[in-house]
Amino acid sequence: MLQVSCWDGLGHQARQLICRFAEAARRILVIRTLAISFNAEFSQRGLHTCGTVALMHLGHSIGYWNDRGLPDEEEWHATMQIHNAGSLYGLGCHQGEEALVLELHDLLH
Amino acid sequence: MQLGGTTTVFNVLEAEKRLQGGGHLLSIMDLYGKLPEGYDITQGAVAGTLELQHRQRRQKKVFEPKKIMVTVVLKQADGNTEEHMMETMSGIFVFEVMQNIPGLQRIYYKQIFDNEGNEWRLDERICQNVTFVQYHLHHEICAWGAVGPCEKGLGNECIDKWAKRMLSEMDQFGLSTWIPAIQCSLLVLHTDDVMLNHWLVAALHGTLRSLGLCRDEGHWQHAAS
Questions:
Q1: Which of A10, A12, A48, B143 would bridge with A92, disulfide CB 3.0–4.6 Å?
Q2: Are A91 and A99 in contact (CB under 8 A)?
Q3: What range does the domain containing A40 cover?
Q4: Does residue B4 sit within a domain?
Q5: Measuring CA to CA, which residue among B109, B117, B104 is closest to residue B74?
Q6: Which residues pair with A39 in a beta bridge?
Q7: Paired strand residues for B222
Q8: Model confidence over B25-76: pLDDT tens digits?
Q9: What is the ipTM for the molecules in this complex?
Q10: How many domains does chain A have?
Q11: Who's near A14: CB < 8 A, 6+ residues apart?
Q12: How many Å lie between the alpha carbon of A41 and the closest alpha carbon of chain B?
């Protein structure tokens, strides 16, 4: 049996996408049974903290917080911002504004 | 190899093809075999190390070096033009020519045209006399203005770094295989059977873990299988 666990602090809006992905994995592995679970141990409180909450969920699933104190979502997010890098970002509610900036950028150039 | 951001197998093969000047069959492999063109090599191989394979084509075109004349026409702010001519050996790259022109070094261009209307890339080799007459600055790096420290979501590199640190501290590396967040995001959006198979085989007796970004919503989620 192939077990797929998905953790999200905002109500699992992408269930269909996850199901399609899990089904592809099942088909490739030629396994008959597929079990998908949608879990949430923490609810996302901040606007841009989905990555932080996802990492908190990773920690929960590997028992990382058993011997350590669970960090405050906003505080940990601020700590991780110090060396925040990448080409893909969780944009949260700022997505609309960034799209606007991109449009303006295109107009100006 | 120094990479300037997200780089796929296709990008590397294309660059290598231009560097070699043709005549070779190229492929990139890891422990499980040839990697598809869309695979992002920024995070390394799925398993083992990345290997670039060269095989010489049977009918390789013989490249004969000769002297050529390259001219770059610079437009000044006052509307006048200034011509820079250089005699060089054929096979020189366009970017090498640009680097030799005073005032053009260390700047990136796109839409480079010669006087016959042909468009050139910076990494193309020049094999005959040419005159470049037009080029535009390539705006790839832009300032986004001041953003408060907490008003930004986490980036994929930051997520990978913290996730690996957590897995390492829990001695999970033998049990869990981590898919770099950027690759997981691409896999979830555009399921690629070859790549997915690669990762599933890599984690056959353990757990495959990652954080994927659902791009429509710009939202990170954790998944394990």
A1: A48
A2: no
A3: 2-108
A4: no
A5: B104
A6: A7
A7: A7, B211
A8: 889 998 888 898 888 888 788 888 899 888 877 766 666 788 999 998 877 6
A9: 0.80
A10: 1
A11: A8, B214, B217, B219, B221
A12: 12
Cβ neighbours of residue B148 closer than 8 Å, sequence gap 6 or more: none
Q: Considering the entire predicted model, what is its pTM?
A: 0.55
A87·B6 Cβ contact <8 A:
yes
Q: CA-nearest residue of chain B to A83? A: B158
Q: Report if residue B143 sits inside a domain.
A: no
Residues of chain B in contact with residue A83, where contact means CB-CB under 8 angstroms, are 158, 161
Burial of B70 from C-beta contacts in 10 A (0-12 / 13-18 / 19+): buried
The predicted structure's pLDDT at residue A34: 92
Say how many CA atoms lie within 13 Å of B25 toward its Cβ.
6
Q: What is the CA angle B149-A67-B162, rounded to 5?
A: 35
What stretches of B78-225 adopt beta strand conformation (E)? 81-89, 92-93, 109-114, 119-120, 125-126, 130-137, 176-178, 207-214, 219-224
A69 CB neighbour count, 10 Å cutoff:
6
Give the domain range for residue B74: 67-137
Three-class secondary structure assignment of B14-41: HHHHHHHCCCEEEEEEECCEECCCCCEH
Q: Which residues of A touch B150 (CB under 8 A)?
A: 46, 48, 74, 77-78, 81
